[in-house]
Amino acid sequence: MRVFTVILVLGIVGVLIFEHSIAQTTSGESRLGDANLRGISVAQTHDGDFVLWATGTKETIIRSLNHGASWEHETVDGGMNLDFRDVEAFGANTAFIMSSGDGAESRIFKTIDGGKSWSLQYSDKRPGFFLDSLACSSPTDCFALSDPVEGKFLVLATRDGEHWKELARDKMPAALPNEGAFAASGTSIALCGNNIYFGTGGPAARVFRSADGGVSWTVAATPVANGKASAGIFSVACAGKHVVAVGGDYKNPDSADRVSAYSDDFGKTWRLAGRPPSGYRSAVAVASGGVLSVGPNGEDVSVDYGIHWKAAGSTNLNAVALTPDGNAWAVGPQGTIKHFAVKF
Question: CA-CA distance, 224 to 231, in Å (whole number)?
Answer without folding.
Answer: 8
